[in-house]
Amino acid sequence: MNLLAKFFSPKTAITSATIRAEIARAESEIAAHRAQQEGVLAGIAVMNDSQHAQADADAAAIKRAIMRLEARANHLTVELPNVIAAEEAAAKVAADDSLRQRAEAARKANTKEAAKLLAEYATAAARVAEVIANLEALDIETTAVNAALRSNPVVEPVVAYDAIHRRSPDRPAGERRAVRKCWVYRYPGSPRDTDTAKFQYEAPHEVVREAGIGRDGKAIPVPAVQHDYYGRVLTITPTLEDREVVIERVSFRPGRSEEPLSSVRLPPAFSGEDHIWPRG
After folding, report:
1. Is 264 helix (H, G, I), strand (E, B) or coil?
2. Mean pLDDT of all residues in 25-52
3. pTM for this predicted structure
4. How many CA atoms lie within 13 A of 77 on its CB side?
């Protein structure tokens, strides 16, 4: 590990990440040196003796640099598993310590803090039980009053608090209308008497279709239609008009009732105590 420390500056934390980065840097430099080495000896065929000697010296220097970098990368590669193992062991120690602290905090909370919370629950639940008991008494009285009113209807029956306060209103059925551009086809009425020389027509009827709107904001044209009218073919050309049409229909939906308060269960705060609600 002493040799490993010499590969990095004193302030650099030696981790698996920094080792991997250093291996990658060394390998990159090795590749660059090898390319440089090939370039130094590329023109050896036309070198004189002095140039050849210089090229050999440069190539030797580059080779030594490559050897140092390879030794560095090899040593880092050998040390990397040990560093990873040390990091994993340190992480396990830290995780174990964190879990011990959480367990101690949970133990303390269950022993002391929970007792305070349960005492608060008992006080609040007792108040809730009192409210439910008063509402239950009101329910009983309302039922008795309405029973008496059935035999002596001096006033309207009393509506129970559940219907007043604990039920949302019904949603009635209905429809929403708006004025839209429409194509209107007008058809002639049917003749009342085909035996007379002059037909007397019923009122004409219309077919209204909401117009599609193009990107230019204008109604998209629609073709005329052919209508067989007692052996005569009539061409019905639609006209564009503003008409009120149904754009949404809403179905009936009954109001939602909340769960009855009689279904509430309030167990005791501490072992051995009576149920808070329903009362025993």
Report:
1. coil
2. 89
3. 0.53
4. 11
